[in-house]
Amino acid sequence: MIYDVFVIGGGVNGCGIARDAAGRGLKVFLAEQGDLASGTSSASTKLIHGGLRYLEHYEFRLVREALVEREVLLKAAPHIIWPLRFVLPHHKGLRPRHLIRLGLFLYDHLGGRKILPPTRSIDLHSDVTGEPLKAEFAHAYEYSDCWVEDARLVALNARDAANRGAEIHTRTKCTSARRENGAWDITILPEGGKEQTIRAKALVNAAGPWVSEVLGSIVGRNNPDRIRMVKGSHIVVDRLYDHDRCYIFQNADGRICFAIPYEQDFTLIGTTDEDHVGEPGNPQITESETDYLLASTSEYFKLPITREQVRWTYSGIRPLYDDGASKAQEATRDYVLKLDAPSGQAPLLSVFGGKITTFRRLAESVLEKLGPFFPAARKPWTADAALPGGDFPFDEVEARIAELQRKYSFFSPQNVRRIFRAYGTLAEKMFDNARFATDMGRSFGPLSEREINYLIAEEFVREPDDILWRRSKLGLHLSADEQKALRDYMKPAVKEKSSKRAKG
User: Fold this and answer.
1) Which residue from 351, 322, 487 is spatially nearest to 12, judged by alpha carbons?
2) pTM score over 0.70
């Protein structure tokens, strides 16, 4: 069998490309060396946003495209994406108010906003958002962006790609790729298995931080295009305030920092911008990054934030195209697509950079570049297509949650909300008309045996951390004993269920 497109990389770009290609009728094979979203795509600030600060670097095309995508993605996946309001306090020593007003005016109007509410001014001395802040901050602007469960966005793209015929292979490493007789011969090594050779008409390198390594060690190029690896780190602390809005703080070095309500009991603070040298796997926050985030937010909050409040940290590597920018925070966040297609030879397309917000448009651009090689492929289709579980109006979330709670009243309201926010309309498939809590099987805190089995069968889960830190963030909520019980349960469960995972 020969595939049309072989995709290396199971992050948001790779899975988005696989989904788009499969929906156009192409035969797709995707290989990811770890779990879905196990790299950069689960280590973002969890925002679908235009990137207000990118306006200062005159990246108007990128900002406009991202602003348009906010509402496209909100309608496609309203269970895992929802509107957030961001409060930007004016700092008298930094950007002047007229510059902020101009930036927010552009932000409101560049992207043809229809759903999200516009910017407004806030008196911090009378508004609830001013209560946690120092008294010196008197005025702020409030504007709109969106939140996203980033790793779930990846998993749902992979699930939809599989539903449309793509083959999704996690924990499968590519060891070599060579052009042979007008196609690609790609050697893969599944975890615990034997090497196989897959033949494909086109190869897409969406390996994120490993994109240059793929070009060098796997494809065999002597001088592969380089990326600039920029590390972004976050800390999660005990909840700092009670309202549901987020803060965006300006820092004296020109960077910005977010403080965002997170997982009910916490506040997410990030991010940093620091050049990363060495291997991109498993990046860790440094002491200086932690100090930076604590100091940046403590500049604004009345009560200083200390290390004792930190409950979790995570870091990710942004694989940015090396445009020669002098500072990490100034390197372009725009994506660059490099097509290598010598006459009569199979095409290779490599993806550099990109933002989680623009993954869908990136995928469309990839298919556009590959279009001449697949003249029978269908037209673009993802702009109006819901992701799995998102097939309902974006403004019906609360009504759907209330309906689910009435039907499955044996679950706590908090857990029903969590489940709908994760699975949307597919929650019914997981509940499968259960009448009692015992119908859901063994309990692991808020996690049920039936949910675990669903994730193994439907969302390519193989290891406990796939559930605890990627398909969810239940690692923040389950006790040590509950996590151990989950690990013990999954050893035989994965062996039994993984062979039944749907391939399409």
Assistant:
1) 351
2) yes
